[in-house]
TrEMBL record:
<dbReference type="InterPro" id="IPR015942">
    <property type="entry name" value="Asp/Glu/hydantoin_racemase"/>
</dbReference>
<dbReference type="InterPro" id="IPR001920">
    <property type="entry name" value="Asp/Glu_race"/>
</dbReference>
<dbReference type="Pfam" id="PF01177">
    <property type="entry name" value="Asp_Glu_race"/>
</dbReference>
<protein>
    <submittedName>
        <fullName>Aspartate racemase</fullName>
    </submittedName>
</protein>
<dbReference type="InterPro" id="IPR004380">
    <property type="entry name" value="Asp_race"/>
</dbReference>
<keyword id="KW-0413">Isomerase</keyword>
<dbReference type="GO" id="GO:0047661">
    <property type="term" value="F:amino-acid racemase activity"/>
</dbReference>
<comment type="similarity">
    <text>Belongs to the aspartate/glutamate racemases family.</text>
</comment>
Length: 230
């Protein structure tokens, strides 16, 4: 098995889920006592969030690029950025290393297309929903992407940073997300992309009238497939 390098800590709540999924999926594939070969560089999310809020994306990219180099030096054969939002700097990260970076939006798009869908609603941080780096990556695979209205985007973003990143899961917030999902479905969404790694702590398939695409789970599965490929 190849060694999977994890750029994590953004937030550690979802990075812990990445680690769990990688090991569960590896055991399912290999059986017995097998677990995933991986190395983790976990950053201080408070520092990254401050750079996000200040719009200092190039500096944030430098921080993650340095972390990526440390993972390659530690023996990583492929890399995951364990957050959708920070794929805004995926190009900087990929350019800093010689091992492949498995792009989260590509694995998500592949799953949506495999399900035969063409139009999806996107939930995520305000950066992910409102900027073009993620939506355009999905659109590059032929998908039509829609996002919530301004009030919906604000609530989705608030819950991520003020609750889910802190390990807080509230039923009231789940209801708010379900209302946002209902609006996206009414606008024509055939599926919902959970485009923030923390959202899976709150929303599952049972909370949506259309298929949901859990990006953390999809990313982890793609990583195990790549790590076990000949």
């Amino acid at each position: 098995m190849k060694t999977i390098g994890l750029l994590g800590g953004m937030s550690w709540e979802s990075t812990a889920e990445y680690y769990r999924l990688l090991n569960v999926l590896t055991r399912e594939r290999l059986g017995g006592l097998h677990s995933a070969k991986c190395v983790l560089h976990s950053v201080d999310f408070a520092e990254i969030e401050a750079l996000q809020s200040a719009g200092r994306w190039e500096r944030a990219g430098e921080v993650l690029a340095e972390a990526a180099r440390s993972l390659e030096a530690a023996g990583a054969d492929l890399l995951l950025i364990c957050t959708n939002t920070m794929h805004k700097v995926a190009g900087q990260v990929a350019a800093a290393v010689s091992v492949p970076l498995l792009h989260l939006a590509d694995t998500t798009a592949a799953a949506v297309l495999a399900a035969g869908l063409g139009k999806v609603g996107l939930l995520g941080t305000a950066f992910t929903m409102e900027q073009d780096f993620y939506r355009d990556r999905l659109a590059g695979h032929g998908l039509e992407v829609i996002v919530p209205d301004p009030a919906g985007r604000a609530e989705v973003h608030r819950v991520i940073y003020q609750e889910l990143c802190l390990g807080i899961v509230r039923e009231e917030s789940r209801d708010a997300y379900r209302a946002v999902i209902a609006d996206l479905v009414a606008a024509g969404a055939e599926g919902i992309v959970l485009g923030c790694t923390e959202i899976e702590l709150l929303i599952g398939p049972e909370h949506s009238p259309v298929p949901v695409f859990a990006t953390t789970s999809l990313h982890a599965r793609a990583a195990v497939d790549a790590a076990l490929a000949d």
